[in-house]
Amino acid sequence: DVKVTQSSRYLVKRTGEKVFLECVQDMDHENMFWYRQDPGLGLRLIYFSYDVKMKEKGDIPEGYSVSREKKERFSLILESASTNQTSMYLCASTPRVPGTEAFFGQGTRLTVV
Amino acid sequence: AQSVTQLDSQVPVFEEAPVELRCNYSSSVSVYLFWYVQYPNQGLQLLLKYLSGSTLVKGINGFEAEFNKSQTSFHLRKPSVHISDTAEYFCAVHTNAGKSTFGDGTTLTVKP
Questions:
Q1: Are the CB atoms for B33 and B93 separated by under 8 Å?
Q2: Burial of B54 (0-12, 13-18, 19+ CB in 10 A)
Q3: Is residue B16 within 8 Å of residue B84, measured between CB atoms?
Q4: DSSP symbols for chain A
Q5: Across the interface, do B104 and A40 touch by the CB < 8 Å criterion?
Q6: A52-102 pLDDT, tens per residue?
Q7: Among candidates B9, B43, B104 on the partner chain, residue whose Cβ is nearest the Cβ of A104
Q8: B47 within 8 A of B61, measured Cβ to Cβ
Q9: B49 touches chain A (CB under 8 A)
Q10: Nearest chain A residue (CA) to B52
Q11: How large is the average pLDDT for residues A10-28?
């Protein structure tokens, strides 16, 4: 069974902390994505990566950075967490085959206090 | 650029009634069309997709969707819903480059 695994389901962090969200996929997919999901706003793309060590900004990259040192792992970093980053974070991956669906992790619900 | 509009943010319906969740899209390039479902506290999973060919596509759990190129729509339907269909549904377009754009989601609530 294919899998995208996010390291934490729930996280509570303090304002100003550096936060790491980890995502691992076991499908050898080239593309990986980080989304933020807020009620009524759908999924908004933060960053994506088409290959190891490559990254591109999505629609809302401010306050975030990413790292992709290995093909299977894509990390989202909040350099200095703020309360407006309280949200559900979803990781997804796709192969480099047009028309293939995205495979999602279970999500990480982050609360910044 | 691509955009996806889900015309209803919430759809309440009684069990065994039919339902339609509406989705319109716009794109300057060719796209593939998808519907995903998200059950509470879970990630999204594929419901169905349209790549080419027949405009009526069938997915899991008895759902189907019809691609209408002239109206740039991809509405999702089910003839008889169950309580277990209560979830959030997302319409999405994917480009050849692998980038996805999602709608804001429609919350389907099935009442007994």
A1: yes
A2: exposed
A3: no
A4: ---EEES-SEEEE-TT--EEEEEEESS--SEEEEEEEETTTEEEEEEEESSTT--EE-S--TTEEEEEEETTEEEEEESS--GGG-EEEEEEEE-SSTTPPPEE---EEEEE-
A5: yes
A6: 999 999 999 999 999 999 999 999 999 999 999 999 999 999 998 888 999
A7: B43
A8: yes
A9: yes
A10: A99
A11: 97
Of B51, B90, B104, the CB nearest to A99: B51
Instruction: Give residue-wise pLDDT tens across range B72-81.
Output: 999 999 999 9
Q: What DSSP letter does each residue of B44-105 carry, written as one string?
A: EEEEEEE-SS-SEEE-GGG-EEEEETTTTEEEEEESS--GGG-EEEEEEEEETTS-EEE---
Q: What's the CA gap between A108 and B35, in Å, rounded?
A: 22
> What is the mean pLDDT of the segment spanning B99-110?
93
Would residue B85 be called left, alpha or beta, if left means φ above 0 and alpha means ψ between -120 and 50 degrees? alpha
Q: Cβ A43–B41 below 8 Å, yes or no?
A: no
Q: Which two tokens stand for residue B27?
A: 């794109």
Whether residue B56 contacts residue B85, with contact meaning beta carbons closer than 8 Å, is answered with: no
Q: Quote the pLDDT of residue A1.
A: 67
